[in-house]
From TrEMBL:
Protein name: Thymidylate synthase
Entry-linked HAMAP family: ThyX
GO function terms (MF aspect): flavin adenine dinucleotide binding; NADPH binding; thymidylate synthase (FAD) activity; thymidylate synthase activity
A Pfam family it matches: Thy1
Biological process terms in GO annotation: dTMP biosynthetic process; methylation
Biological source species: Cavenderia fasciculata (Slime mold)
Gene name of the record: thyA
Presence of keyword Membrane: no
Amino acid sequence: MEAITDGITVIETPNETEYYDVMKGSHRWEVKVHDHGNVALVDTMPRLAPVGQTADFAICQAARVSYGAGTKKVTEDTGLIRYLYRHQHTSPFEMIEFKFHCVMPIFIARQWIRHRTANVNEYSARYSVMPDKFYHPSVEDVRKQSTSNRQGGEDQMDTKTAQEFLDYLDQAEECYKTYNNLLDKGVSRELARIGLPVSVYTEWYWKIDLHNLFHFLRLRMDSHSQKEIRDYANAIFALIRPIVPVACEAFMDYAFESVKLTRLEIEAIRTGKPIQSTNKRETEEWIQKATLLNLTDHIPSKDQQQQEEKKQ
């Protein structure tokens, strides 16, 4: 069937396949994060999938265009998706996109925005008044500085020091009253905002394709990532998993829960000798992997480790 609009001929293709909405007719799937934050899935592409399939079908559709093959069985689609992910043929995963509405503290947003492969539009404190909402952890969530990771925290802080930290946050949040008073006196929003702490909440719309989203999740769901942004990453994964379950399973099997071995590590396994590296961090990473893989014979003794440290 053809329709002519503004001199352009539009060909309407008969719909021979029955489709359904992968978000089940909802305009928003939301997960609450912390006291004031949340992640909401507000749209996805494709929004419609053939009945009996998931949005994973779009990955196979894109992959098979290379050789003109028609629709395959769901079981064959699963095998293809796993093959594509296993061998890092990533472009078919870019055919799926997700749009999120995210509300988070600014200190998390600044880590998040480092992933530059998404489209972002953030709440503007030049145009609007910042909300009176701040991230305030519990005593149990206050962590000591890690001794092995300069950019992270680990074990729980003692209660007295943790309470001192929370009192410090209370003082920082008090500046909101001053911020509001200055706005009432006519100070511009673009200047008044600069005194607010990074614990204040912001929000944005964030659109990203599945390939780049998996890269984000692999880094931000990892135990080495800061717990607060890890909570958001886990929420995102929970939202997309029902829509692309096959791709998510491949991601878990071949990326997130896999172990990548370097040439030196493979050589250590092959020869049964300690890893041939003078880099302390590289050796420590190998020990972690060998322990995980139960390769106890390949873990250097403390004496061997001390000898290597002396060489360095």
